[in-house]
Amino acid sequence: MTDDLISVLVIEDEPLSRKLIFHMLREAGYHVEVSADGNDALERLKKEQFAVLLLDLKMPRLDGIMVTEQLGRTHPELLARTIIMTAFPDFLKEIDHDAIFGVLKKPFTPDTLLSAVERCAAL
Questions:
Q1: Contact by Cβ (8 Å): 72, 96
Q2: Residue 107, preceding bond cis, omega within 30 degrees?
Q3: Which of 72, 87, 115, 118 has its CA 20 to 30 A from that of 109?
Q4: DSSP string, 61-85
Q5: What's the N-to-C CA distance of the chain in angstroms?
Q6: What is the pTM of this model?
Q7: How many CB atoms lie within 10 A of CB 2?
Q8: What is the pLDDT along the chain (123 residues), one digit of tens a residue?
Q9: Are strands 102-105 and 52-56 parallel, antiparallel or unpaired?
Q10: Distance separating alpha carbons of residues 12 and 97, to the nearest angstrom
């Protein structure tokens, strides 16, 4: 990882969404890594540090709710730098909103994404 770039981990199971978010953030000057599922993301977080986590809520196997619960036990400081992405707002009631940075409801615009990441990275 390049030291002068802000690092973002995108945790998104849908390949096209993952690729689009990756390219938007990379073009905006961020260092971006991706994980296709919650298990891979938690393994990465054991070895790497990220300034911002973009976390899809609905994923197979280990969903975003379970990832936030695990982060609360192992990396509580990362929850404050976690932005939940979801097209399923009904599931948001299962998230501790005081612990996370915020929520992006899908579909979101590139400007909305970049603004949220910029504000979160400024913490």
A1: yes
A2: yes
A3: 72
A4: SS-HHHHHHHHHHH-HHHHTTEEEE
A5: 20
A6: 0.93
A7: 7
A8: 445 799 999 999 999 999 999 999 999 999 999 999 999 999 999 999 999 999 999 998 899 999 999 999 988 899 999 999 999 877 777 777 788 999 999 999 999 999 999 999 998
A9: unpaired
A10: 20
